[in-house]
Amino acid sequence: MSAAAKQGAEAAGLAALTARVLHDLKCLDYPAHQWVRTHKASAGQHVYDAVIIGGGQSGLAVAFGLKRDKVENILVLDENKAGLEGPWITYARMVTLRTPKYLTGPDLGVASLTFRAFWEAQYGEDAWEQVGKVPREEWMRYLRWFRATLEIPMQNETRVELIEPVERGLFRLVVSGAGAGDTILARKVVLATGIQGGGEWHLPDFITSALPKHLYAHTSGPIDFAPLIGKKIGILGGGASAFDNAQYSLGMGIAEVHVFMRRSAMPRINPIRYMENAGFLRHFADLGDAAKYEAMDFFLNHSQPPTNDTFSRASAYSGFHLHLGEPWLKVEEIAEGVRVTTPKTTHDYAMVIASTGLLTDVALRPELAAVAKDIAHWRDVYSAPEGRQNRLIEDHPYLGPSFEFMPKSPEAADRLHGLFVFNYSALVSLGLSAAALSGLKFAVPKVVAGVTRQLFTDDSKEILGEFLAYSEVEFTH
């Protein structure tokens, strides 16, 4: 089969799958009628029932869930250009997703919407059996198809600068960017802002204070590897993203990549693999605070190792060097780039990259500046036993069962009513959920139910009034 014929067959297969999805959704479309009451601002400005900030896999899944529950007056906002939402073709540099290929999530139980169906429609069932893990760029293609097929309403190139409470159950979103217009009003706001959306990527002060910005980067940011071809770079940190960037940069033509870890041995245990079972994913949120704290203390003290295939790709290059038990003591600018000092020796690099994780704290999020002081943290609600305190846990927001922010005081309740956080900062309260593909299947229904519950109860007086006045004749004999 010629390349053109093969491409045509793949396109036809995907078109047939799209038709199948639409048919399946019609079969599942019960109840079909609208129920959410229309709200308007006093000045007549449009009020969305829900605005989702973030158009990656989590935001798309939440939007789909709300549409299935007949909440149609919604909008997804994303700061990136169309088709570039999420990390997959921006800063993610792994070859494949780290999760097993059979995991489901955004599909919400509709088999024809799964990645497997997407793959088989184009390449056949035998091709699916040959897949080890999902190729990163193919996952992005799937998400684009998912968005288009479900007609998710999205406004790209729109950055939310500030979320302002107007009154109980109404927020004003101050926006900027090429796609932004006036401020946006919404009854419910869902922050589906990914792994970094609950705080910020962490860059150690000893790096940022000693080096100009062109000599360092974080694995989560944009990196221009072209000027580094044929040169040496150093990577600080032994997490999975360190090895993702090592194999990627070596593949781009970097001569040597040196990965440094303070640990004397590679991490070998990945607690996520244990957490990926239906009981843990669905019911971790039902545990008491003490049990959650203990579990997350264990989790956060185990660095996620690279996948075996990623490590093998990196170590296959002659220019790959792993330094165990060798933390960085200081860095300094030199004529050739950066000098790194460790307890063992010094190393000179053209540039250094930090794979040093992230910090979670709502106080770090500029869009939450108007409400950050109202939001309860774990440190405000639960006191760990002496000697067992974990600062990383205590900086997380303490969330309700539907991913809603909880107020630090009774006076703050009205200001937060309708504000949901569906990003990685939900980890301690609700486990693997919002920004983890493995948890979406169980997490999305919870946040969708939280949004619809509030939409209903907020208007319950009017809805019940309409019900008690209901008089449409059905029996006509």
Write the layout of secondary structure elements.
Elements: H1 3-27, E1 47-53, H2 57-68, E2 74-77, H3 115-123, H4 125-130, H5 136-150, E3 154-155, E4 159-167, E5 170-176, E6 184-191, E7 199-201, H6 205-208, E8 216-218, E9 232-236, H7 240-251, E10 256-260, H8 271-275, H9 278-283, H10 289-300, H11 308-315, E11 320-323, E12 330-334, E13 337-341, E14 346-349, E15 351-354, E16 358-360, H12 378-381, H13 391-394, H14 413-416, E17 419-421, H15 427-430, H16 437-458, H17 460-468
Parallel strand pairs: 1-2, 1-6, 2-3, 6-17, 8-15, 9-10, 9-15, 10-11
Antiparallel strand pairs: 4-5, 5-6, 7-16, 12-13, 13-14
Helix pairs in contact: 1-3, 2-16, 7-11
Q: Explain this structure to me?
A:
- By secondary structure, the chain is of the alpha/beta class.
- It has 17 helices and 17 strands.
- It has helices at 3-27, 57-68, 115-123, 125-130, 136-150, 205-208, 240-251, 271-275, 278-283, 289-300, 308-315, 378-381, 391-394, 413-416, 427-430, 437-458, 460-468; strands spanning 47-53, 74-77, 154-155, 159-167, 170-176, 184-191, 199-201, 216-218, 232-236, 256-260, 320-323, 330-334, 337-341, 346-349, 351-354, 358-360, 419-421.
- 40% of the residues are buried.
- The mean pLDDT is 95.
